[in-house]
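SEQUENCE AND FOLD
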Amino acid sequence: MNAPVAHKPPCGGIDLRQEQGQRAVFCGLTGIVWLHRKIQDAFFLVVGSRTCAHLIQSAAGVMIFAEPRFATAIIDERDLAGLADANEELDRVVTRLIERRPDIKLLFLVGSCPSEVIKLDLSRAAQRLSGRLTPVRVLNYSGSGIETTFTQGEDACLAALVPDLPREPVAAAPSLLVVGALADVVEDQFLRMFAAMGIADVRFLPARRAGAMPAVGRGTRYLLAQPFLTDTARALDERGAHRLPAPFPFGAEGTTGWLRAAAEAFGVSEAAFERATAAGRARAETALAPHREKLGGKRVFFFPDSQLEVPLARFLVRELDAELVEVGTPYLHRGHLAAEIELLPSGTRVTEGQSLDDQMDRCRAARPDLTICGLGLANPLEAEGLSTKWSIELLFTPVQGYEQAGDLAELFVRPLRRRALLEV
């Protein structure tokens, strides 16, 4: 039985509501697809079922020319029935893996629904294996989709890294940490931008290699590059780091606000900030202009899926002149999203949580021009004549920063273009 919609206390100028009921969620194991490309000497070993293995293979695609940095330790009927010692089996699989792949420097044991059902303690397993496999570091996190949405897999992974990060010396000068898995090309662009402002000590979490993970301490100022990193931010706060409140770097406006937060924290003058960002802003505006013609006035409905919904809604309505019917999000972190909420039009309906049947009814009644949703909802809605965009594609594609603003807009234009061609 679905709970009624509950109005939440005022939050900015939005119409915030909360729903509970049936949900459509994607598995947190999906985060491995982009994380294994990011940390180049890490390996992700899912402790799960054949279904888990099929999910990762399907999501990542078939890799013919390169051995991927992920695999699944299959939990079969003997494990589920307690006929085999799961810890002995896991130790055997991991030992064989490390012998075969000596390039691995960081191994993640990734929990799944099956491993949690049989109560396999991967935390203790990681500690045990770390002691045996030196110098390989073994960490664990849960990618189970029972209670989470798929982007929380990355959050759990980065949060698992934080306790093992080097400690910054007490007297160290302030440093800037960018938190969230970004494509290498985006990292390089941001590095050049920060350097142009005069901010030289910039680090990224996760780093590209296990041995280059950033030091963190009381002098660390950090910017979140993704809005779903709640546990990671909490872990960094506990280490003494300080979060810089900012919108997220989607589109020209979001990127400018995000960079400005760093500039203000590090004492960058307004003139230096303008010199560093003016060309990027101009290129982003040029790239967005043709897409604004196609998205202007289009009505958009967001189903809750990735936790990117609020920043993306801000981007669509303020930079591309779209109209928001409803912005659903699995969870709304009031603190991390405060700057984004303030930029949404007054009265925007934001729904936290999900009652799937009720949201489907509202979407069908509204007949939006574009619906952003998970894979499981896209085909049924397309069959009913609605144009959809898979929200997971927004995680697989580099979309942050000035240079990617046009690419981000293009992702929303494609479904409309496809629908127009089909209707001819």
